[in-house]
């Protein structure tokens, strides 16, 4: 295959872990085999594997190889926030059927209030999308997306109702490899109450996410508002 950059290799190996090609507790192909398969340098491969290790997909074992330590969470109606997995990828890897309702799609210019919220520079052209995300037909979260307009040419509401990340990666060749996240609990808004069946809850879990491509350019800011019963945070620690 053509010479691949570390982001492409990272994504390809991760997909194969998620779909079971590289199963839980098995060892990945050897470094020599990977270098030949991806036509890459050892340093490029090691950078990709380190990213997977940082996100707890694999664990390098000295003298033995690299073992897969990721396994699907039991099928549940909860989010699991780890790595840079998309909503569709999460649903697929956990045996759920994803669906999305696009309730707003517009082009905006980043004004002062958005600068403080998103981190984009003033005057930046953005595509603003609001989506209600569902698993097995039940609303689980509301996403308020702001994408750098220059990185999503041709984006439409129809594409947004499926997978914007898949469009970015497969159609545009843009890969998200780094994500900075902040998690808070906030009082539910009127929009939350309309689209999420909160019952006796008066709050939602809020995830603010800044996503960067392989060049270190911020291409997305998203605020995800999740039902308290549909949210679970999982992190990775190393000693």
What does this structure look like?
With 239 residues, the protein is α+β, with helices and mostly antiparallel strands. The protein has 8 helices and 10 strands. Helix 1 packs across helix 3. About 5% of the residues have low confidence.
Question: What is the oligomeric state here?
Answer: single chain
What is the spatial order of strands in the main beta sheet? 4-5-6-9-8-7
Strand content: 25-35%
The helix content, as a percent range, equals 25-40%
How many helices?
A: 8
Radius of gyration: 19 Å
Q: What would the average pLDDT be, to the nearest integer?
A: 86
Order of SSEs? HHHEEEHEHEEHHEHEEE
Amino-to-carboxy terminus distance: 37 Å
**Total beta strands:** 10
The major pleated sheet works out as: 6 strands, antiparallel
Helices and strands: which structural class? Answer: alpha+beta
Which spans of ≥5 residues are poorly predicted at pLDDT below 50? 74-84
**General shape:** globular
């Amino acid at each position: 295959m053509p010479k691949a950059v570390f982001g492409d290799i990272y994504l390809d190996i991760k997909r194969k872990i998620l779909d079971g090609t590289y199963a839980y507790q098995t060892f990945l192909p050897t470094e020599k085999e990977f270098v030949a398969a991806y036509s890459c340098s050892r340093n490029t491969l090691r950078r990709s594997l380190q990213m997977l290790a940082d996100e707890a997909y694999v664990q390098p074992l000295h003298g033995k190889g690299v073992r897969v330590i990721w396994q699907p969470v039991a099928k549940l109606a909860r989010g699991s926030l780890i790595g840079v997995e998309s909503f569709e990828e999460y649903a697929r890897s956990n045996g759920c059927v994803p669906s999305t309702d696009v309730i707003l799609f517009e082009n905006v210019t980043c004004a002062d209030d958005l600068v403080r919220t998103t981190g984009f520079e003033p005057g930046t052209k953005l595509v603003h999308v609001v989506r209600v995300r569902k698993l097995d037909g039940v609303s689980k979260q509301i996403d308020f997306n702001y994408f750098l307009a220059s990185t999503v040419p041709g984006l439409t509401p129809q594409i947004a109702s499926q997978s914007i990340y898949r469009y970015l990666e497969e159609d545009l060749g843009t890969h998200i490899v780094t994500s900075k996240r902040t998690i808070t609990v906030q009082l539910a808004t009127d929009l939350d109450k309309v689209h999420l069946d909160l019952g006796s809850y008066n709050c939602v879990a809020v995830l603010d996410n800044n996503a960067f491509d392989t060049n270190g350019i911020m291409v997305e800011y998203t605020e995800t508002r999740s039902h308290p019963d549909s949210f679970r945070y999982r992190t990775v620690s190393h000693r």
